[in-house]
Amino acid sequence: MPGADTPHKMWGGRFRQPPDSDLLEFTSSFATDRRLLRWDVVASIAHVQMLGATGIIPASDAAAIADGLRGILADAEAGRVRVKGPYEDVHSFLEAILYRRIGPVAGRLHTARSRNDQVATTLRLYVKEAILHLVAHTVDLMDATVDRAAGAVEIILPGFTHLQHAQPVRLAHHLLGYVWMLDRDVDRLMDCYRRGNVLPLGSGAVAGVSFPVDRQRVADALGFARISENSIDATGDRDFAVELVAAAALLMVHLSRWSDELVLWASEEFGFITLADAVTTGSSLMPQKKNPDPVELIRGRAGRAIGAVTALLTALKGLPSGYQRDLQEDKDIVFGAVDLVTASVRALQKFLTGVEFSKAHMEQATRRGLLTATEVADYLAGKGMPFREAHEVAGRVVQEALARGIQLWELPMEAYARITPLFGRDILEAVQPIAAVEAKRAPGGTARAAVEGQLHSARLQLDTLRMWVRETEGRLQKVSALAER
Ligand code: ARG
């Protein structure tokens, strides 16, 4: 048996010289994929139990291997085994430690398996867990936002287009806009989960395996919905990783857009929000400063999430089918993106707890900028004037108000009447911001009833998503428990 410092090798029979240590270090992925240890143990246990159950290896050997694997994981997680050293990857580390602990019987673990179908399986298990966590945290953020929205139905602020005052909206409506954005992100992640929920193990290196394996049994034990149909495709496929990274990048872009707005709103010029001390940072020079650093960093880190998509697609684009070592690069990219985006979702949720909305600033802003000029056109269209003409006439009302430097509700009735006799006294009411808001009664609009309907739909949707999280969590926990002693 090799000593503690001589790594047990997964290959070597045909070699006369050991690998160059610099190149071994260069090609090793152990520093990155060591975090896959638990899922690699889980997948190995499911595999070896199947080998034992089908009689491909003796049942007692299968039991000894499964036991040994569980012991290694327990020791690694308790810090009794160093998950470090001159190994090619987590798979060779695991086999080497197993060999050291239970002897040559460890060599039976790799029957009917290649690292190519092994790593594809382990990474898929990780991806399922990563999606679960990312979805769970995003649902929490949605939930918190719906709560803030429910408390903000009474607050009116300008809706912006081109960052110019456009039309007044309820703050609740504005906030719910982000909830539906995140809902699509979650849907994409769940979709990616579903499509990636396929077992590659049993594909071998490229051609399949020669033993009478029971792949469905392994799929069931590992919680995969089905087994892959083609061994060449299954070992070379990283679409599931691309999909996760792409969905995460879009989620990050959404967080970044929202963050940008929060930075803007916290500025002296907007003053739409004030920030609690706990979510801000001071300046080393300017004593008065209170900076929204967390959201600036979300915005700043979005570039890395987007870069991950390019990095992964570029790693794949030149590869012939089947496994190529280039595929090893997937893990650094996927882990980096998942960590970054998950942490950003959580940070934004934390940040929002320190955001106080300034009703006064928001409502003051709705009383500037002739925000309700569209109501003038709608009013005339309601009186039978074709909208295009009504728009033109409303433009004259705008000119009149601009010339006098007053708001639309301050323009005297005579001035309205001079422009067209279609105006009645009720125009002065119709151009008030709150009246403009309440006029947007069509579903999806910003009137109170429509916003309350939206809050209701959002809460129903959150119930559905939370159920998915609970069920998926339960399923993954059961699979993960294969590794418990
Ligand atoms: N560490 C490799 C990876 O992450 C898995 C091993 C397959 N290596 C090989 N030479 N066939 O992709």
Automatic annotation (TrEMBL):
CDD domains: Argininosuccinate_lyase. GO terms for cellular component: cytosol. It is found in: Cytoplasm. PROSITE patterns: FUMARATE_LYASES. Residues 371-438 form the Argininosuccinate lyase C-terminal domain. It is an enzyme of class 4 (lyase). Pathway: Amino-acid biosynthesis; L-arginine biosynthesis; L-arginine from L-ornithine and carbamoyl phosphate: step 3/3. It catalyses: 2-(N(omega)-L-arginino)succinate = fumarate + L-arginine. Its EC number is 4.3.2.1. One of its GO terms (molecular function) is argininosuccinate lyase activity. Coiled coil: none annotated. Residues 13-307 form the Fumarate lyase N-terminal domain. It comes from the Bacteria. Keywords: Amino-acid biosynthesis, Arginine biosynthesis, Cytoplasm, Lyase. Its main location: cytoplasm. SUPFAM superfamilies: L-aspartase-like (SSF48557). GO terms for biological process: L-arginine biosynthetic process via ornithine. Pfam families: ASL_C2 (PF14698), Lyase_1 (PF00206). PANTHER family: ARGININOSUCCINATE LYASE. Belongs to the lyase 1 family. Argininosuccinate lyase subfamily. This is Argininosuccinate lyase. It comes from Candidatus Segetimicrobium genomatis.
